[in-house]
Amino acid sequence: MVAIDERARKSIAVSLLSCFDFVERGFVDHESWRRGLSMVLLPEVAEDDALWGKLVSSYGTTMADSKHEMVDVSRIPERAPLAGDPILMSHVMRALMRALHDLTEEVELLKTLPRRTDANREEVERLSAETSAMRAHARAQLETRKARTIMEARRRVRAAVASAVDVEVANIFDGACDGVAPAPERSGSEGVA
Question: Which whole number is the average pLDDT over 125-149?
Fold first, then answer.
């Protein structure tokens, strides 16, 4: 691999400037400049604020709706310095091939997402069904405990009422018997006529 000197890197960057108008509005802002240079493996040139300043002073403009300075793509002269320099062209081609490779990997990964999503959806449905079954079981146990507690409370109330009724009946009986003389005992001869 042939090393590219600083001047050649800057030449590549300037030559590709118009390619960094990603949203096709006719202007390249500083962020797009940095992003584009990162894509063609020239991030160190993107950090050269002096170069960006020269580009803005030569071809720049300030948009009314933006405080940021931008390069007006229509003011950049058309030139093709890459076509005559095989070293520069090979650098750009390597960068483009690497970007294409990375993009291809991303697309392949994205293709697997629907399958993963379906598997995740099935797992969520399975867990949801298990959770619903567990909740139903817990509700049934709670209802059973509640029913047992109510039945036990009713049994205790009945027992208390029955005990109280027995005591009350005994008291009534005892009260009714107070002041009443016991019945005379009958002998066998008195009652025969």
Answer: 86
**Residue-level pLDDT at 1:** 43
Residue the block writes with tokens 């802002």: 29
Residues 6+ apart with CB under 8 A from 30: 52, 68, 69, 70
Residue 37: is it exposed, middle or buried by C-beta count within 10 angstroms (0-12/13-18/19+)? buried
| 52/31 Cα distance (integer angstroms) | 11
Residues listed for the chain: 193
- Any idea what DSSP says for residue 23? T
Phi first, then psi, for residue 160 (nearest 5°) are -65, -40
* Each residue's pLDDT tens digit, 9-22: 777 778 788 888 88
Which three-class secondary structure state does DSSP give residue 178? Answer: coil
CB 20 within 8 A of CB 14: no
Backbone angles phi, psi at 114, to 5 degrees: -60, -40
Task: Calculate what percentage of the chain has a pLDDT beyond 70.
Answer: 74
Which residue's entry shows tokens 């294409």?
Answer: 100
Indicate the residue type of 108: E
Which structure tokens are listed for 139? 């509700």
> Which residue, among 94, 124, 70, has the nearest Cα to 12 in the 3D structure?
94
Single pTM value for the model: 0.45
